[in-house]
């Protein structure tokens, strides 16, 4: 069938809006009509050419929501009409990783997904007979897409597509890093580096679990109001403090009789390896945990003095906020619908598919938290 899509033909070039061909779902696959999709920094990272695993030509997009329109043979958990959120981190519930219950990094389709292909090694997308690659197993920059059954979370039907699409990446990544990866407890002290779409969701995750002191760090003073809106208690612009950032943050977070500073938890949402080191070293000695969320450029490495780790600080990484997609995403949709978390204020721009490149421009200019394309 013919579908409308924004195609990434080559790195560093704007997406091209065109009509492409989509084959129907095969064994264990589902066709979804995408109703809305967010534009995420990860899409930009790949489109820029900085992603070492980027493949072209492809149909990007991984932050979507839509309706099941067709199911392939063998599909048992979904039916036509179900509302779903595509999952770039699937949950098969059968591979060793899923069965371990120690990680959300399902391995069932990892190899083909990384090649931009469906599990059988082929693509459902083409243009004039030439193959187009899938992206992150989702390809939500098309108004119809095909995914494996295990890469779809069934969600409630009263939730608005143009808001819950953000749960497909940004919301879940930020809140999940707090709830699943760090397991932050009430009364904790936390520092969040980078107050973009991920960082703001970390902040509201910290508010959700009852953290006491939530420090936001960003070079853009305009982010102060945003952070406070979602629960931030202190704001620090490193350019304006007149001293080194780490000692400043350690001093800011001093409390208790021993007056030893450092946060219980820190979160890097920047992808900058220098900031990752600062985040670790701003942790409390003995028990501080630093969670790396941001995606660093290809070949980048992190470093610190081993003494930082010997004295009890812990470095952790997280993907998709440690969430098991089919299990946890419907719960997060419920949290949004029940008013426990906010999404609406973060959707700063709503665009048509033909305007999708404007969404990337807004991102580059720092003028948006999240732009959403509504089909």
Total of helices: 12
Average pLDDT, rounded to a whole number, is 96
Q: In CATH, what is the homologous superfamily of the largest domain?
A: Medium-chain alcohol dehydrogenases, catalytic domain
| H-E order | EEEHEEHHEEEEHHEHEHEHEHEHEHEHE
Shape: globular
Q: Quick recap of the structure?
A:
By secondary structure, the protein is of the alpha/beta class. Helices cover 26% and strands 23% of the residues.
Explained architecture:
The protein has 375 residues and is an alpha/beta fold. It folds into two domains: 2-168 and 343-374, Medium-chain alcohol dehydrogenases, catalytic domain (Quinone Oxidoreductase, Chain A, domain 1), CATH 3.90.180.10; 174-318, Rossmann fold (3-Layer(aba) Sandwich), CATH 3.40.50. Helix content is 26%, strand content 23%. The protein has twelve helices and 17 strands. The protein has helices at 41-47, 96-100, 110-114, 161-164, 170-182, 197-209, 223-229, 245-252, 273-281, 306-310, 325-337, 356-364; strands at 2-7, 16-22, 29-39, 64-71, 83-86, 125-127, 130-132, 144-148, 152-155, 189-193, 213-217, 234-236, 265-268, 289-292, 314-317, 347-351, 370-374. The strands form three sheets. Strands 3, 4, 5, 8, 9, 16 and 17 form a seven-stranded mixed beta sheet that branches. A six-stranded parallel beta sheet has the order 12-11-10-13-14-15, with helices on both faces. Strand 16, helix 12 and strand 17 form a beta-alpha-beta unit. Helix 5 packs across helix 6 (197-209). The chain is globular, with a radius of gyration of 21 Å. The protein starts with a strand and ends with a strand. The model has no long low-confidence stretch (mean pLDDT 96).
């Amino acid at each position: 069938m013919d579908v409308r899509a924004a195609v990434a033909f080559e790195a560093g070039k704007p997406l091209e809006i065109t009509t492409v061909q989509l084959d129907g779902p095969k064994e264990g696959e589902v066709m979804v009509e995408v109703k809305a999709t967010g534009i995420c920094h990860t899409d930009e990272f790949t489109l820029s050419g900085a992603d070492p695993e980027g493949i072209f030509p492809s149909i990007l997009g991984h932050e979507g929501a839509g309706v099941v329109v067709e199911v392939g043979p063998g599909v048992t958990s979904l039916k036509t009409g179900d509302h779903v959120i595509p999952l770039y981190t699937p949950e098969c519930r059968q591979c060793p990783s899923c069965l371990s219950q120690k990680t959300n990094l399902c391995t069932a389709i990892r190899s083909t997904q990384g090649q931009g292909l469906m599990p059988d090694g082929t693509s459902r997308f083409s243009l004039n007979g030439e193959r187009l690659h899938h992206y992150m197993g989702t390809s939500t920059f098309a108004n119809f897409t095909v995914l494996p059954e295990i890469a779809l979370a069934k969600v409630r039907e009263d939730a608005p597509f143009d808001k819950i699409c953000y749960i497909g990446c940004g919301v879940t990544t930020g809140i999940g890093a707090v709830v699943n990866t760090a397991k932050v407890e009430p009364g904790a002290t936390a520092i969040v580096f980078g107050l973009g779409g991920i960082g703001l969701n970390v902040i509201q995750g910290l508010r959700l679990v009852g953290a006491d002191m939530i420090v936001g760090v960003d070079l853009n003073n305009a982010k102060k109001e945003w952070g406070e809106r979602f629960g931030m208690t202190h704001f620090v612009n490193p350019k304006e403090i007149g001293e080194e950032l780490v000692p400043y943050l350690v001093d800011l977070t001093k409390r208790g009789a021993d007056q030893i500073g450092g946060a219980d938890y820190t979160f890097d949402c920047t992808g900058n390896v220098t900031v990752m080191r600062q985040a670790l070293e701003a942790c409390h000695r003995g028990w501080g945990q630093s969670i790396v969320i941001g995606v660093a450029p290809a070949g980048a490495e992190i470093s610190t003095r081993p003494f930082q780790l010997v004295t009890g600080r812990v470095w952790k990484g997280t993907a998709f906020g440690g969430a098991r997609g089919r299990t946890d995403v419907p719960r997060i949709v419920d949290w949004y619908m029940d008013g426990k978390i906010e999404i609406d204020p973060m959707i700063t721009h709503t665009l048509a598919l033909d305007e999708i490149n404007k969404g990337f421009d807004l991102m580059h200019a720092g003028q948006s938290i999240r732009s959403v394309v509504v089909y």
